Amino acid sequence: MDDSLSSEPLSSGPSELTSVFVYGTLMPGERWESVARQGGEYQAQMAQLGGVVLADLRPEGYPALFEEPQASSVVHGWLYTYTAASWPRALPFLDDLEGLHLSPPLYQRVRVSVQTADGLAPAWVYLYARPGRRQAPGFVPVVSGRWADVPERHLEGPRQTWETPEDEGGGPTSGLGA
Question: What are phi and psi of 38, to 5 degrees?
Answer without folding.
Answer: -60, -30
